[in-house]
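Troubleshooting: if your tokenizer reports a length mismatch, compare against these two reference records.
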Amino acid sequence: MRPIPTVPVLAALLGPLALCALLLPTRGHFANTNVALLLVAVVVAVAISGRQLAGALAAVTAALWFDFFFTRPYQTVDISKSADLVTAGLLLAVGLTVSQLAARARHYRMVAITGADHLSRVRGAAVLARSANSALTVVDHVRAQLTDLLQLSECSFEYGSLLGHPPRLEADGSISVGGQPWDTDRLGLPPEAVELRIFGTGKYLGRFMLTGTPGTVPSHQARLVATTLADQAGAALDSLQRPVKAA
């Protein structure tokens, strides 16, 4: 399962409260609309650094603490002035909207960065496959790339015939266990080692055995890149060493 984002959640709960406590001495001398704008800034900071859920939680807690400390009657959740009611409602609405936009922008930025990293890995393996004079060099490079890419605790390579029926990472990035699909996006890699087969000119050459790290969930994109890296290793092995065919 995915790890619970503890730090962003704590920031969402405590950040608005800390700002309200800091501004409390200025109550009555500092416009409530300015307080609300500062609280929106806290919501944005939480959403950018954490997940969308944390940003939404920050928006809700910001509205509650604004109501509790800065609207009359104080230290209650009641609001007596219509202007304060509008401000609190806008704070919640704007906070939720901005947190969603900030989290989405962070997601797109991470996708762009991750995509560039994945492309670099594939290019590096392709260049090495064309230039290396040893099949072992290519296999070791791809094994290291797979370990980092999929956050594996262990990765090994086996030449030759298939043994057993371990879970398998398929070409489409899915994983099957005993012929049944495995919910990798929720559960991560299966607890036992997963095979990633490699082929050359239509024949089986060997497989990487992938042992996941508990608590990590390799993305579907990362799993697709892993199969592409395996294809590069297969092409190199086919042209450089040509291992014995599987029985």
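Reference record two:
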Amino acid sequence: MNIPHSFYSKTKQQQRFFIFKIICLALLCFFISIVIAYATTLYFFPFIILPVIISIIAPFIDVPSLKATKKITYYAPLFIAEKEKNKRIKIHGGTFLDYCFTINKNSNARERTRFILYNYIEGLLKLVEELETNSKTQYIIQGTSYIINERTANKIGLKRTKQDGIQLLILLFNYPLLTLTYSITKTKLSFPNYRTVATYEGKVSDILVHKKSLLLLRDKLS
């Protein structure tokens, strides 16, 4: 399956112009919130809207910058890995930016879910294969998710571990943004369930044990 990412296929100038438009739109929304606040005497309203606006536009600014400085690496359009630190690599699902530029707008909820899962598996396989090639099979891969359950995680060599407090706080702060991406997946307004949030981790060597199963599942989803 060919997985295009139309944002990164743009020229640098086109990318910058798109980000500029996003920032202008965000400023307009904030200005409108100020006007509403004064018109309704709800002076706290802009202070509620501002964090939401920041969380929504942040991926369009931060992610391309982090990618350019190689602090993150895309192993699939919806699978990102942070730069290794102390033999530990943190992985993330796609951001709002990635969902906007890779999800087929004509696909239904089932097709979108399959596409997202394919990305996760494809990205994980590429990451562990790269680490295997570089003799880094003792490295630990860690991720926090509200989508993958413990049973599925165990099947691919990951085990539930102590909650990553920082990642949980990030997820809580980004709840409006997660709601947007979750709604894109479901093709309707949907709210992620934070009770299912869990942190999983595992050695690369443990994940490689399940490589054959991951390949079969990837091929099935494709």
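Descriptive notes for reference record two:
- Strands lie at 72-76, 79-82, 88-93, 140-145, 159-161, 198-203.
- The mean pLDDT is 92.
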